[in-house]
Amino acid sequence: MATLLLTAFGSIFGGPLGGAIGALVGRQIDTAIIGGRKVEGPRLKDLTVQTSSYGSALPLHFGKMRAAGSVIWATELVEHKDTAGGGKGRPSVTSYTYTSSFAVAVSSRPIAGIGRVWADGNLLRGADGDLKVGGKLRVHLGHGDQAADLLMAQAEGSARCPAYRGLAYVVFEDLELADYGNRIPSLTFEILGDAGSTSIGAVARAILPEAAVSNLETSLAGFSIDQGSAGDALAVIAEAVPIACAVTGGTLSLHAAEPTGLVTPRLLPAPAAANKDGQSSEAKASGWSRKREPLPRVRQCGVRYYDTARDYQPGLQRGIGRSEQGDLQVIELPAALSAAEAQALASSAGRRAARPADTISYRVTEIDPAIVPGAFVEAPIASGLWRVAQWEWQQDGVLLSLTACPSKGTNTARPAGAADAGRFNAAIDLARTRTVLEAFALPWDGTGSGTSPAVFAAASGASAGWTGASLLADLGGDGGALVSIGSTGRTRARMGHTLGTLASASPLLLDRTSTLDIALAAPDQTLNEASLAQLLQGANRARVGNEIVQFASAAPLGDGVWRLSNLLRGRGGTEWAIGTHLASEPFVLIEDNLVQLDPSLIGDPATTRIVAVGLGDTAAVSVPISDPSATLRPLSPVHGKAAREIDGAITLKWTRRARGAWLWRDGVDTALNEETERWEIALGDPDTPVLRWQTTTSALSITADQIAGLPTGAPHYFAVRQIGRNAASTALRIDFPA
Length: 738
Prior knowledge:
This protein is mainly beta. The protein has six domains: 95 residues, no CATH class; 94 residues, no CATH class; 76 residues, no CATH class; 58 residues; 172 residues, no CATH class; 98 residues, Immunoglobulins (Immunoglobulin-like, Sandwich), CATH 2.60.40. The strands form nine sheets. An eight-stranded mixed β-sheet has the order 6-5-9-1-13-20-18-19, covered by helices on one side. Strand 23 and strand 24 form a beta hairpin. Helix 1 packs parallel to helix 4. It starts with a helix and ends with a strand.
């Protein structure tokens, strides 16, 4: 009955909205008399998937909340073709990926911004605003002057594309979908409805802008309203924090139904007795009557909420205290709270449920205009604080219904450490890092024909937030034509740079003297040790400058710095580079995760530069190909000897080595691995020789007359090089006596 009466009364003053608030006030009265009804207001839900249905309600978000949105526009998927591989006997692999552009509405009121974004439960956008996959994100805050999104206007036409003013939405442009099964993923957004946190009062002022709201400053990290009227929204809030409503002078006022902070109550005048003819059971001849309900059964309360410590996952906190056997009374509060805040609300609700009802019917002949429903008063006939629940004009005065309030000094503090949000595995938010890139050719390993260069790219990043990079070949060597040659993949190469200079040593012995300090590009990566047997099987091969080194010992020094020792030097025919080291040279561990580049795509390795572009790169990373002829260059000969004959002639001999012939075979000669055997012997520097000879065998005899005809001051050494199909080997120096 009170609901009907106050609905009509509120409609007179405030129209349909006033009628809704009147209904809320009436429900408070009816609940005290005949019990409550189920309110279908805002509900707490699991983090549901986004929708794209016409007519779906868009919620209001306050403070900071996490919620799914509604897709309001999308393009068709765009196909991208990428070819990789094709080297070292591997097949060429063509892969297809897809991107899409779409818009998602997130709030029907303006917002302050968007924080993190989750896609299928994983972070798509981090706290720093970085996307974890390729694409662009734009946020439209929903203000009344916002313009249409340029991409949407271009696709739909400016005449058909609305600006969606008053609606906050997010536009994704060319979002890469490979990580999500080449489909638009289910997205949830961290919505910054306001610049900071919010409060119950702020929510009430937003949905009832003409109401006078006071003393409702209970802080909330966030709050969402996705259905129901304003009255239903306030009724849901009132389950956790009781709200008193009144209409004074045509203005709706809302405030806390229980005293908080400093309250200055009004003192009621003395009660007035009723006339005998008008005397009722509600007010005796004394002018007042009091009714105390029996002590209610103890019932524990709980609050379901969105836990801020668990990325807004739903949580449940029970109030502190004993409860009798029975169902748990759960308050579904669509608010973002900490576990401690939720437990405090649950404890307060439990105390209210356990408090016996204590009411007074109090008659006065005149009333202070400030004493309206919801006001706090003191009565001369009873101690304590009372709240005016309702008043009624009667023939012989005004009959007030008073409800006892808890003492102002009641302790509602939550015991320290009593609330626990529970265990939670948060989505990892790793910052994007720039690409570290090296490109180089490696000596032929004996696989295949060995007639094309084996060029590799090593790429890494400073953290696991590096998700790979696209690879291109700059065929002009300096800003020329760019050709796509694949991608690095997400596996980071173990690479870095030297912190000192690697000393010279013999390639024939295990170098137990030299040490080398390495700073890895990714401090979270590690290097492993290896036994001598593992070294002989090819373990721990690394490229230091142009020399290939194997290391048996690796000791961490902290902050990604490692000390390498017990080294095998000049591996793979790179003994020529042992004495060429400088400080801060590139270091790359040779593993299977290196990217072998298709020789048909990279052109001439001597002039081509390799370019990488990753999500964390503000500019493209470009490097030349180091030692581009390493694969095709014959190995230098060894065991050179010069012998003086009796007749004064000099006989030179040396031993041939061949590319890819790394095994020592007994009983057979080393394979040539070239079309023909050709040698060039120079007297002195092979680039500016005094004399030059060529031969097809690994020996040369120089007559005494030729020796005698040498100019005065001629060098006393020969430089022997093998001439291969595509390049000449490095020279072997053979000294001869004067």
